[in-house]
UniProtKB/TrEMBL annotation:
NCBIfam families given in the database record: PRK00174.1, PRK10524.1, propion_prpE
Keywords, sorted A to Z: ATP-binding, Ligase, Nucleotide-binding
Identification of the protein by name: Propionate--CoA ligase
Family affiliation: Belongs to the ATP-dependent AMP-binding enzyme family.
Sample GO molecular function, one term: ATP binding
Length: 632
């Protein structure tokens, strides 16, 4: 048995001893009474009775030793802003922001919704929220008003923090009008107050008297105010992060506090190899789980400087990320395969222009890492390139190679082995039995889930159990909704989702959400959205829509105009990331006799593959129409 196998075995067979030792990595205001409380499976409580605070561990704890060291470095290639904050400055900004929130009535357990571009204030707001024992819900800035509204409705925040605008590729994207629209849509659940960080990008944002407050003014008013830390029990929720599933309604993934801090701190040693005082550069966005864990909490809990970047990887030129690695001597970099595929298309000289000797490893996550991209970037950087497989639900990697425990070889196309704490199995979908080596199965985790994984679905315990723990009724194991296969050395390969979730450039989208947005267009009677393979983004959504009035199809101009209209409808409701690459119009969708739309067959045809078993098909002409549409 290798050292790593032994390490992993111990984490599974003796979880209390294993995690009890790991818990020493963070500060506990009050010691826990039990490492693991597991009397109500699948719910579990890690470090029950212990009191801590995420913000204290990320900020205050470092003041004694590293007050003057950089904590947050912000670079915007969009506005040209570049600013560094030491741990002392971060403490001041965060405790002041927390005081501002407190003055607006925010306290323990209240929700604060954060809808922000990648600016320092977004991170101050996250840390200020957890400082007060309040719960943040960050909504990705690329989502539009309808997506924002469903999240406001579910989280019912007391406060919403936003900015006048974001910027992407030199284009200003106004946020405030979307917030106003979403607040209207959310009705009674709308936040009492909105704090707006005015970057001066959008023209004079509308401020609703009595509700909307200007951050700069509040910051002046509260200049000398500092809010203290609210100690919370380890299982107190730190945040809610919405993610897409099979239904049109996103799920609020609820995360704990103590377990999350411990798990993240452990990964910095065992997976990432980042050390205090070094710079961690994650190119993700705070709207995603990678941003929560590896832009904000893990680097800061570990006493590192986190490099926060606003902009595209190729602006002002394709060397920008490498230039930042050189300038800030980043030792760990975390990105997504899509971004690397974009960079791979550029002149390799951009990579050779900079001194990248500080960089020890590159981590990629969020979507399958294709072999050509992995091979290209490892060859260029000549450092380990590690594929991390995980999900919003888990909060930290489930499969990878833990070089901090034992350097083991990587295999192209595979994220690697189960990470310590995760008892990962590949199970047969129908029997629930483990599948043999080389055979496809559902990636499942035998509970208890390790510290830091989702506690429940926000305010829907039943949905948590029904969604994740009922694939195999009697066994009550956690289903990832991903297919995988394992080789004789135990290395996993991910084969795609078992549900209707698609992955566009590393972003998880539910096809049902897009379908709902498309159906919102008055001309559409029915629609099916599927994810279709794309060489750059991994997958893109394509819509197959049935019109109320098919006569439109006779006029090619009207048809093209309608396609554009439908796409912009999706953009205005959900955000441009959900835009269908194409909208095909058909007279009928292929369905089973029981009326279920055959999405998998549509997807197969759209990708030029065989549509598979069609014995349950009601009327073959639906499929013919899809075939004709994609071939036209
Ligand atoms: P999200 O919750 O948005 O991070 O999406 C999680 C999903 O993305 C997983 O369930 C997988 O389908 C996919 N995913 C994440 N990381 C990887 C990876 N390294 N390789 C393949 N698929 C991945």
């Amino acid at each position: 048995m290798s050292d790593y196998q032994e390490f992993h075995r111990r984490s599974i067979e003796q979880p209390e001893a294993f995690w009890g030792a790991e818990a020493a990595r963070i500060y506990w205001h009050k010691p826990y009474t039990q490492v693991l409380q597991y009397d109500n499976p699948p719910f579990r409580q890690w470090f029950a009775g212990g009191e801590t605070n995420l913000c204290y561990n990320a900020v205050d704890r470092h003041l004694a030793e590293r007050a003057e060291q950089a904590a947050l470095i912000h670079v915007s290639s969009e506005t040209g802003a570049e600013q560094s904050y030491t741990y002392r400055q971060l403490y001041e900004e965060v405790s002041r922001f927390a005081a501002i929130m407190q003055a607006q009535g925010v306290g323990k357990g209240d929700r604060v919704l954060i809808y922000m571009p990648m600016i320092p204030e977004a991170i101050f707001a996250m840390l200020a929220t957890v400082r007060l024992g309040a719960i943040h819900s960050v909504v990705f800035g690329g989502f539009a008003s309808a997506s924002l509204a469903t999240r406001i409705e579910d989280a019912a925040p007391k406060l919403l923090v936003t900015a006048d605008a974001g910027m992407r590729g030199g284009k200003v994207i106004a946020y405030k009008p979307l917030v106003d629209e979403a607040m209207e849509l959310a009705g009674a659940a709308a936040a009492d107050k909105v704090i707006l960080v005015n970057r001066g990008l959008a023209e004079a944002p509308m401020m609703k008297p009595g509700r909307d407050l200007d951050y700069a003014t509040l910051r002046e008013q509260h200049w000398h105010d500092r809010a203290g830390v609210e100690w919370v029990e380890s299982n107190h929720p730190s945040y809610i992060l919405y993610t897409s599933g099979t239904t049109g309604k996103p799920k609020g993934v609820q995360r704990d506090t103590g377990g999350y801090a411990v798990a993240l701190a452990s990964t910095m040693e065992y997976i990432y190899g980042g050390k205090p005082g070094e710079t961690y550069f994650s190119t993700s966005d705070i709207g995603w789980v990678v941003g929560h864990s590896y832009i904000v909490y893990a680097p800061l809990i570990s006493g590192m400087a986190t490099l926060v970047y606003e902009g595209l990887p190729i602006r002002p030129d394709p060397g920008i990320w490498w230039q930042l690695v050189e300038k800030y001597r980043a030792t760990v970099m975390f990105s997504a395969p899509t971004a690397l595929r974009v960079l791979k298309k550029q002149d390799p000289e951009w990579l050779h222009k900079y001194d990248l000797s500080s960089l020890r490893a590159l981590f990629l996550a969020g979507e399958p890492l294709d072999e050509p991209t992995a091979e290209w970037i490892s060859g260029e950087l000549k450092i380990p390139v590690l594929d991390n497989y995980w999900q919003t639900e888990t909060g930290w990697p489930m499969l990878t190679v833990c070089n901090g425990v034992q350097p083991l070889p990587t295999k192209l196309g595979s994220p690697g082995l189960p990470v310590y704490g995760y008892n990962v199995k590949l199970l047969d979908e129908t029997t629930g039995e483990e599948v043999p080596v080389g055979e496809k199965g559902v990636i499942a985790v035998i509970p208890p889930l390790p510290p830091g994984c989702m506690s429940t679905v926000w305010r829907q315990d039943e949905r948590f159990v029904n969604t994740y723990f009922s694939l195999f009724q009697d066994r009550k194991v956690y289903s990832s909704f991903d297919w995988g296969v394992r080789d004789a050395d135990g290395y996993f390969t991910i084969l795609g989702r078992t549900d209707d979730v698609i992955n566009v450039a590393g972003h998880r989208l539910g096809t049902r959400e897009i379908e709902e947005a498309v159906s919102g267009h008055a001309a559409i009677a029915e629609v099916a959205v599927v994810g279709v393979h794309d060489t750059l983004k991994g997958q893109v959504p394509q819509a197959f829509a049935v019109l109320r009035d098919p006569s439109v199809l006779k006029d090619p101009e009207k048809k093209a105009a309608l396609e554009k209209e439908v796409i912009s409808k999706v953009a205005s409701q959900l955000g441009a990331i959900a835009n269908p690459a194409r909208v095909y119009f058909v007279n009928q969708l292929p369905k089973t006799r029981s009326g279920k739309v055959l999405r998998r067959s549509i997807q197969a045809l759209a990708e030029g593959r065989d549509p598979g078993d069609l014995t349950t098909l009601d009327d073959p002409s639906g499929l013919e129409q899809v075939r004709d549409a994609v071939q036209s």
